Amino acid sequence: MPSPLPGLTLRRLASSRLVVLLPADHALASRAEADPRDLAGDPFIDSPIGYGNRTVVDERMAEAAIHRQVVIEVADIITAPAYVRRGLGVAVVPDFAAPADDPRLRVLRLAGRPLYWELSLATASHGRPSPALRALLPVVDRSMSAGSRTADGSSIPGGGEPHGGR
Fold it and tell me: How many CB atoms lie within 10 A of CB 24?
């Protein structure tokens, strides 16, 4: 997740590995993974600027000195596969958003260190929490300590543990 805003404490609730989604007839469709450099010339379907998954993908592309062209922005990442399926571009989406058995799509690992989509509960770091928040936080913390896992079953480093903003 991108750096939290100052004054916030985040509790990670869920995490899902990002994968590359390609149309079945794409030149890279037969591979098991895609290097960001291999996608440099492709049009992208992605979330609007400021969304967490957009930020981590933009950062990965910048690390590789790749400028990419986002041609379609979707507020709901679950809709990205429909655009990819029609050949309008490629996408990097959380694995839960990648249809598993669609013959018109290919799902590839993103080469290099894994990237994750994360869902976190954000609360103010300072001040007195409301009674509702005081009741909710122990439930969230107990639930997360019972087993923080990604969608693919792997452990989440620090999953469920609160961490503060800067």
Answer: 14
At 85, is the secondary structure helix, strand, or coil? helix
Q: Are 73 and 46 in contact (CB under 8 A)?
A: yes
φ, ψ for residue 35 (rounded to 5)? -80, 140
115-166, pLDDT tens digit by residue? 999 888 889 988 899 999 999 989 888 887 776 554 455 444 444 444 444 3
Q: What is the pLDDT of residues 19-28, one digit of tens each?
A: 999 999 999 9
Query: Does pTM surpass 0.90?
Result: no
For strand 8-23 and strand 116-124, is the pairing parallel, antiparallel, or unpaired? antiparallel
Q: What is the mean pLDDT of the chain?
A: 86
Answer whether 20's CB lies under 8 Å from 107's CB. Answer: yes
Angle value at C-alpha 20, between 153 and 90, nearest 5 degrees = 150
Contact 100, 124 (CB under 8 A): no
Q: Is residue 83 classed exposed, middle or buried when 0-12, 13-18 and 19+ CB atoms within 10 A define those classes?
A: buried
